Amino acid sequence: MKLYELSQSYNQLLEMAEELDQETFLDTLESIQEEMDVKIENTAKLIRSLQGDIEAIKVEEKRLADRRKAMENKIESIKSYLQNEMEVAGIDKVKRPTFTVSVVNNPPCVQIEDESIIPSTYLVPVPDKIDKKAILTALKNGEYIEGCTLSQSRSVRIK
């Protein structure tokens, strides 16, 4: 039986408790509970296995991200070297059958020297952010905050 079927059987058995003799009821209840325990344990094992897979994937993602970053840095280093050597030699452009390599001017960009003296016209307002931790603390301390309520959900914990 599937876990949800066992849950249904368990609830049906509880509804029929008065109609069954005590021995039949207890035997059936024990049987369903044992099956449910096994199914729950197996489901917990599946969750643990998937959590292990997730951790392995995270490690691999980090390894690949580090490798990608190293390659990006290598490309920047090689491009800087190439640009420097072309500028030292006075070469602006090299045309070859497979590539054209040029030293070009980038578009202008702004360099901020002191943010504190920038006129407010050029500042972008930052939206307010709700401090949920402070609200939680206040609600736990019995304070009333309009638009907020304290709720508590349930979850499965596997130890």
From TrEMBL:
Family annotation (InterPro entries): Sipho_Gp157
One Pfam short name: Sipho_Gp157
Domain of life according to the entry: Bacteria
Protein name per its UniProtKB record: Siphovirus Gp157 family protein
Species the sequence originates in: Heyndrickxia camelliae
Organism lineage: Bacteria, Bacillati, Bacillota, Bacilli, Bacillales
